[in-house]
Amino acid sequence: MRRVLKLVGILALGVGLVVYPFVVPQPQFWVLNVGVKAIWLGTTALSLTFLQKFTGLLSLGQLAFYGMAGYAIAYLTSENGWSYAASIPLAIAFGTLLGLLVALFAVRSSGVYFLMLTLAVSQLMFFAALQAYPVTGGHSGITGVQPPTIAGLDLATPLGLYWFALLVAALLYALCRYLSRTPFGLAMEGVRDSEERMRALGYNVYALKVAAFTVAAFVASTSGVVALFYHRQITPDGVGLISSIDVLVAAVLGGAASLPGAYLGAAALTFVQNFAQFFTPRHLTLTGAVFVIVVMFFPGGIAGLGRQFKGYALRYRSHRARHRAAVAPPAPDGGQREVKALRSEGGSSHE
């Protein structure tokens, strides 16, 4: 029954995503500013969630790989006339290779040290983009990127970009789900739970962490391609600290240990960023307040709400059962049967 309900939920979600661009008003806003943004932001958050869920490593450097891919495409196509067919795979390869190089030294640390190292990598990317003017355009970045037509989808239109972003997100999500069920995914979970035990079993923990980080960098690099076509430009602000925090907030809002949660959190953050300005000029403060509330009261994020409320319901029923037992009238034998049972259990334990 549970599997059937899950299948029905997946089908309903798929139908909803397909129907969405045809039923919303103002496609320029709802399809592009809400739908496409939530998808590419969710895919970037997916890279962070994948790493956190399977290795326990929380990274703030995912936008470095995202930015590397975006800058590579913009530089090769807009500045040097390369075709997208050649520049897109090469840009994703550049971002993934950068992730591999960072992983070689970053995964030797853990906890807050790993967090600070990845934050430093993100800031290094920001300042490199700011100062390498001949390549990156400095503070102004590279503008005027013309989205191509891929597989019949015109990415210059909101609908074409929506289908492209949705297809990329579906493929990357399927890749993460597939990897989680392979021996590689199970080994990563083992590393997350106990590195010492995995070493004792003969696993190369360092290599597993490097591989997981590289996969996450590949996901982030691919999301950088979609984001470039969404913005039609790339600037240092797009890979700066504020943007990195947006990715972290999206992952935490959705549930940092849930792959679907990355997209749920991105959708929630996109809604807050688009509509909070109608209620308060301090929309960044509101975003921060929502983040704090989720961390304090809903540690499982949006994806964990069902499990959290189910736990509350079970504890409430257990409390009610104990209360009824306490106020119930005594048994006809005056409780002698229960007393004998308790004495018998006590005697057996002393034996």
TrEMBL record:
Transmembrane segments: 7-23, 29-50, 57-76, 82-105, 112-133, 161-180, 201-230, 250-272, 284-306
GO molecular function list: branched-chain amino acid transmembrane transporter activity
Key words, A-Z: Cell membrane, Membrane, Transmembrane, Transmembrane helix
Primary localization: membrane
Cellular compartments annotated: Cell membrane
Chain spans, region Disordered: 324-351
Membrane topology field: Multi-pass membrane protein
GO cellular component, one term: plasma membrane
Biased segments, Basic and acidic residues type: 335-351
Source domain of life: Bacteria
Listed CDD domains: TM_PBP1_LivM_like
PANTHER family in UniProt: ABC TRANSPORTER ATP-BINDING PROTEIN, HIGH-AFFINITY BRANCHED-CHAIN AMINO ACID TRANSPORT SYSTEM PERMEASE
Official protein name in the record: Branched-chain amino acid ABC transporter permease
Organism: Egibacter rhizosphaerae
